[in-house]
Write a structure and sequence with these properties.
Oligomer: heterodimer
CATH topology of the largest domain in chain A: Aminopeptidase
Structural class of chain B: mainly alpha
Number of domains of chain B: 1
Number of helices of chain A: 21
Number of strands of chain A: 23
Main location (chain A): membrane
Number of helices of chain B: 9
Structural class of chain A: alpha/beta
Radius of gyration of chain A: 31 Å
CATH architecture of the largest domain in chain A: 3-Layer(aba) Sandwich
Distance between the termini of chain A: 73 Å
Number of strands of chain B: 0
Distance between the termini of chain B: 59 Å
Helix content of chain B: over 70%
Shape of chain B: globular
Largest interface: A-B, 52 and 53 residues
Strand content of chain A: 15-25%
Strand order of the largest sheet of chain A: 1-23-9-5-6-7-8-2
Largest sheet of chain A: 8 strands, mixed
Order of helices and strands of chain B: HHHHHHHHH
Radius of gyration of chain B: 20 Å
Domain Nicastrin small lobe (chain A): 42-221
Strand content of chain B: under 5%
Keywords (chain A): Glycoprotein, Membrane, Notch signaling pathway, Signal, Transmembrane, Transmembrane helix
Membrane topology (chain A): Single-pass type I membrane protein
CATH class of the largest domain in chain A: Alpha Beta
Subcellular location (chain A): Membrane
Number of domains of chain A: 2
Chain lengths: 702, 250
């Protein structure tokens, strides 16, 4: 009885509170002053062994008067007149380029930059005019294969990424936000703020009050990676609330040994494994905006299609000298080959896939660089308008050895023999080195690996938006896309079949184009797709129409960047797995070991599907740079990637009005005068109170 | 810049009550106690008003109803503190040793309790606004007047001074059974409070000018009730030397 009463009172109270809250919220003063803008993606700070790059605001946020730079001509007014500094400038995406940013940075009048992505009458097509890339002209050169040899200067005269303006590697003392207003009917920043209050009319500066914006993106880390790690260690020791200031970039590499092997079967023979690899990450200046459509996903999706074909003929692989095929997806390649350099490092130290342990009977045999028979890497593969050729790049440095050269030639000839509908061109010019590729990390350790890099470009990248936030499905979309990727998958699979068995791949083995298309859809258009939902048993928890960023993230990081590797691992588990007749509890409680993992996939409450248990050889390995493993690593050496990412608390953007200083000073002076005056008057009345207020007739008489 | 506005408004609204507190109240512990006690009574009236508002909101009553009842509750609690102080007078006489003014001049008690009402009501109405005035922004993005903070401070100051005058007048009316003054206190309180409802339509001058007019009338009336007159004012302006002379003659 008492309980029921309590519940009633509780309900009544909570109802009243809700009514009160809804009734009064609209009248809060803060809402009269500020408007939050939530559609923002922020630039953040990264550090390497010697520098800091990216952006940071002050701890309380940067405030500036909003000014819209619609065309190049508007810069003049801002720099020469613009009396209300500091400004926060709104830039259309096409003006967010190095020269403009440097002008703004050096002007000293800027408190922040907002890249305004919105569609209205003046900006029909928000994407910048290609080519557009914020990466370097020679990506990953410092940690690459050709750092100190004759080929190192090749890229300087023949840049791989000629559009690269290197903005990603610039250090800004102010915050930069990317604000997406495409889903809104009208632009809050332009209509409610800039046009209403701040637009200069015929060059005359606007009068106060002006619309200002506050950008908050404070970064804890500074200077460079060793400094930040050292400060973090000190902080962990002496601060009652210990926290690091930065974290190494890192995630996981995902790899699938096509055939399961146990160390008890004996060691792997030298030169007996074919590796097929692709990268799964890209980069951009802004947190959460790195789809990497052609930078990463075309190659990765092709690898998925190849995996599906190889698992159809896996029983034929061991007919010849080949003992296994490894399919590998590298992570963190955009930041100095994090994933591939770590795998190569682990292989040389005898720690790949896992260090041997006597007590563990279920372990794969060790794989080292000497076991690699061939290496085939898939790069950017989107077909170009008017040129659907596929280019086969090789490394002239390793081919100077005639033994390696013969094997590479074999590899090329088998690929060209199986090219089918494709046109391939092998780069024969021995002065052209490998483009940026994960293969470089392995060749750096062992020049005897015969390797091949397949991509859609001959010299400069065909990808016009390499490692930028605009490398999206829209820019590579064509009716040929999935067909073209399917052709490449068929060619590579048939070549692997022939390399392994010496025979033609049977014609019943076909590319699963449905799978390829769903993969492209999930990675490029909508991560809340049916395939991903199937892989996660309906528990995907993503906003609809969201596309997952491919940026590597940090190893201790949060969901968004882990979400992509999780889905990719489950996708490969589905392709490579054997369906078992086991129920859910049995599946989850199976003996997960270093050879097999058990995945429960395809359960769906809404479709009334019960799910299936898959036993798969998919594995992950750390994709964290070896620099963070080696004691006393020389951070300036450039041997391995040294990138860390700063920690931050929040990103926030809000707009409000800024009163004129005249008004503020007037109010202040008025207040002070009233204060002084009231002391004077009160003092006078108090000292004269006896006379002024005669208490009673008797008192007066006294 | 926003910080200047913050300090300006704070000095404007709380400068006069601060001066009054420091120069007339702080010297005597009894006055401080009475000030706090009356502030507490105002808080009780606020609590009562809030409880009523809790119900009123669920009944979708217009805010006018809330304002009217809130004013009535404040005056009711002013009556309660009046009763309490008159009851406590005997005890106060025992406590007071040197300063007998508080006993001989009943208006002082009235003034202190009125100021207590004023300070606490002013604090409650302005502190939230002041907290938001620290910046970096000012009101106006959604079309509100950018003089919002200044008007709020001026209105608050007006209410603090009004409460002080109302206190004196209210106590005087009850002591001398002059009920016209009592009616004026309640009616002018209602009038000024209802006038502030016009602020939401940004008719700030229409609120502030009548409110200050009412303040002038009430303050003069209260001063008169406390014994001030043109004669006494004139005496003050020329008085002090005369007073000294009188004492010398004595």
């Amino acid at each position: 009885m008492a309980n029921i009463l309590n519940v009633k009172i509780f309900l009544w109270l909570s109802l009243s509170v809700i009514f009160l809250a809804t009734g009064l919220n609209a009248d809060r003063i803060t809402e009269k002053i500020y408007q939050r803008i939530d559609e923002g993606f922020s630039c953040f700070r990264r550090l390497n062994g010697t520098h800091q790059i990216g952006c940071s605001s002050s701890q309380s946020g940067n405030v500036g008067v909003v000014h819209f730079l619609e065309t190049k001509l508007d810069f003049d007014w801002l720099l020469k007149v613009g009396p209300d500094a500091p400004y926060v400038v709104l830039l259309p995406p096409d003006l967010f380029r190095r020269e403009n940013l440097m002008t703004l940075k050096n002007s000293g009048k800027i408190a922040g930059v907002v890249v305004l992505n919105q569609t209205d009458t003046t900006l029909r097509n928000p994407a910048p005019k290609p080519p557009y890339s914020n990466d370097l002209t020679c990506p990953n050169k410092i940690t690459g294969l050709y750092k100190e040899d004759a080929f190192s200067s090749y890229c300087d005269s023949n840049p791989w990424n000629p559009a690269g303006d290197g903005l990603l590697f610039e250090d800004f003392k102010f915050p930069i936000f990317f604000i997406n207003e495409t889903k809104l009917n009208q632009s809050v920043l332009l209509n409610d703020c800039y046009h209403k209050f701040n637009r200069p009319i015929e060059g005359t500066p606007p009068s106060y009050p002006l619309c200002a914006i506050e950008l908050k993106a404070f970064m804890w880390a500074a200077v460079d990676t060793p400094t930040c790690l050292r400060r973090g260690r000190l902080n962990m020791m002496f601060n009652p609330q210990p926290s690091e200031y930065c974290d190494p970039l890192g995630n996981v590499n995902i790899f699938v040994p096509v055939l399961a092997a146990n160390k008890s079967d004996g060691p792997v023979s030298n030169r007996s494994i074919i590796f097929v690899s692709a990268r799964m990450d890209s980069a951009s200046i802004f947190d959460g905006l790195s789809i990497g459509a052609d930078s990463a996903i075309t190659g990765m999706a092709t690898l998925v299609a190849i995996a599906d074909m190889i698992f159809q003929f896996k029983s034929d692989i061991r007919r010849g000298d080949i003992e296994n095929v490894f399919l590998v997806l590298f992570n963190g390649e955009a930041f100095d080959y994090i994933g591939s350099s770590r795998m190569a490092y682990d292989m040389t130290l005898g720690k790949f896939p896992k260090p041997m342990k006597e007590e563990n009977p279920s372990q794969s045999p060790l794989i080292g660089l000497e076991h690699v028979k061939y290496w085939i890497e898939l790069g950017s593969l989107a077909p170009q308008a008017g040129n659907t050729k596929v280019y086969l790049h090789t490394d002239p440095k390793s081919r100077s050895d005639s033994g390696v050269d013969t094997k590479v030639k074999d590899l090329i000839s088998i690929l060209q023999k199986n090219q089918g509908n494709l046109t391939t061109e092998s780069i024969v010019d021995a002065s052209i080195p490998l483009p940026p590729a994960s293969l470089q990390s392995f060749l750096k350790k062992d020049l005897t690996i015969p390797g091949l890099f397949i991509s859609n470009h001959k010299n400069a990248f065909a990808n016009q938006f390499y490692n930028s936030e605009w490398d999206t499905f829209q820019t590579i979309s064509s009716y040929k896309l999935s067909k073209h990727l399917a052709d490449i998958a068929r060619t590579v699979s048939a070549s692997i079949y022939e390399l392994a068995t010496g025979q033609q791949m049977p014609s019943y083995i076909q590319v699963n184009e449905t799978l390829l298309e769903s993969t492209l859809e999930c990675y490029l258009v909508n991560a809340n797709c049916s395939l991903f939902n199937w892989l996660l048993n309906g528990r995907s928890n993503l906003a609809s129409e969201m596309v997952l960023p491919t940026y590597v993230g940090v190893s201790h990081g949060d969901g968004a960047y882990k979400a992509l590797s999780l889905r990719t691992r489950h996708l490969l588990a589905m392709i490579s797995g054997e369906p078992l007749d086991v129920n859910k509890t049995g599946c989850i409680n199976s003996d997960h070991n270093e050879i097999y993992h058990y995945y429960w996939l395809g359960e769906s409450e809404s479709n009334n599907a019960s799910g299936t248990c898959y036993r798969s050889t998919v594995k992950t390995s750390h994709a964290v740079s070896p620099a963070f493993e080696i004691e006393n690593y020389d951070w300036a050496s450039g041997e391995y990637s040294s990138w860390t990412e700063s920690r931050w608390e929040t990103f926030s953007v809000r707009i409000f009005l800024k009163a004129s200083s005249l008004q503020a000073v007037s109010i202040f002076v008025f207040g002070v005068v009233v204060l002084l005056l009231s002391f004077a008057v009160t003092y006078w009345v108090e000292t004269n109170s006896v006379l002024l207020f005669p208490a009673s007739p008797e008192a007066v008489a006294c | 810049m926003a910080l200047l506005e913050f300090f300006g408004c704070a000095f404007l609204a709380f400068g006069p009550p601060l001066a009054m507190f420091l120069l007339t109240i702080a010297k005597d512990p009894i006055r401080i106690i009475i000030l706090i006690a009356s502030a507490f009574f105002w808080l009780l009236s606020l609590l009562t008003s809030s409880l009523l508002w809790l119900v009123a909101v669920t009944l979708h009553s217009p805010i006018v109803v809330g304002v009217i009842f809130s004013v009535l509750f404040q005056e009711l609690f002013r009556y309660f503190i009046y009763l309490l102080l008159r009851k406590a007078e005997v005890g106060l006489k025992k406590l007071t040793e040197s300063d007998t003014a508080i006993i001989t001049n009943k208006n002082i008690l009235a003034y202190v309790s009125g100021l207590g009402f004023g300070i606490i009501s002013g604090t409650f109405s302005l502190v939230n606004v002041l907290a938001d005035a620290t910046g970096p922004g000012t009101v106006g993005l959604h079309g509100d007047s950018n003089l919002f903070f200044l008007t709020s401070a001026l209105t608050t100051l007006c209410f603090i001074l009004l409460h002080t005058a109302w206190g004196v007048l209210f106590f005087h009316a009850l002591d001398k059974k002059k009920y016209l003054a009592l009616v004026w206190v309640v009616m002018s309180h209602l009038l000024v409070s209802l006038l502030t409802l016009m602020n939401s339509s940004q008719l700030y001058l229409a609120t502030i000018l009548p409110a200050y007019a009412v303040l002038v009338v009430t303050a003069l009336w209260a001063a008169g009730a406390a014994g001030a007159s043109f004669t006494s004012l004139k005496k003050c302006l020329t008085g002090p030397p005369m007073t000294v002379q009188v004492r010398v003659e004595d």
